[in-house]
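Can you make up a polypeptide sequence alongside its tokenized fold?
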Amino acid sequence: MFDYKLLAALAAVVEQAGFERAAQVLGLSQSAVSQRIKLLEARVGQPVLMRVSPPVATAVGQRLLNHVQQVRLLERDLQAQVPSLDEGGAPERLRIALNADSLATWWASAVGDFCAEQRLLLEHLVEDQDVGLKRMRAGEVAACLCASERPLAGARAELLGAMRYRALASPDFIRRHFAEGVSAPALARAPAIVFGPDDQLQHRYLAALGQEGGFCHHLCPSSEGFVRLAEAGFGWGLMPELQVQAELGRGSLVELLPQRPVDVPLYWHHWRNGGALLEQLTRHLHRQADKWLVPVVGV
């Protein structure tokens, strides 16, 4: 049988990104948390953490973290069925990885009522839509919203719809860089804006236009900052249609190639044995997604 105090220590160290903060959350000394991790490693016969900063779960540590995530959700179901088991503590906190553009646009409106009704707290871990699933693979989150179609073992991936992106720039930027018209070579020569090193959206956009290879670009790991940089004339970039209606309306951003939007499919990944809460949230997201996301062609 598992000793769940030891598993709770492992989860706290990873979730709090260190032993000191994990000790504060658990109400223990840092030494006590360290001893629990060592005892867990002795029980499983191998390391569960790589002692780097912040600590990272090993392969077996990831499997244990995935187990902890699912147990927490199943315990919530049991407390609902047997109210006497509910100790009246703080509401459940669900850790979810999602892309910054969803968080900046439709996510809050889609899930706000659900969280209030279920007394659910969310902890959002922001990752690029192309790589967000790594958080779930590492056992750090119970669910993930990202562009990856293939589910992890023991999980489901369900298509919610697609976010539509449009290539935009400020009028001044367009006058400076596209005086002879917008073309793939001109886009590659002009400075672009990219969310981060994992963001390949602009790269794929240029490749679809027949322009392969590198291009100069700013890095801006903020959805709101991305739009502000574009308005200020830093560069061109692909931005969610949902996010830039006001800017398009007042003309501070202009579309470069109106006939070439990009639709990025979004998949909701969650553990198969995640209990009633995850199932309810999944059904709720399916109902809400039609209001905010566009259908995926061919699906």
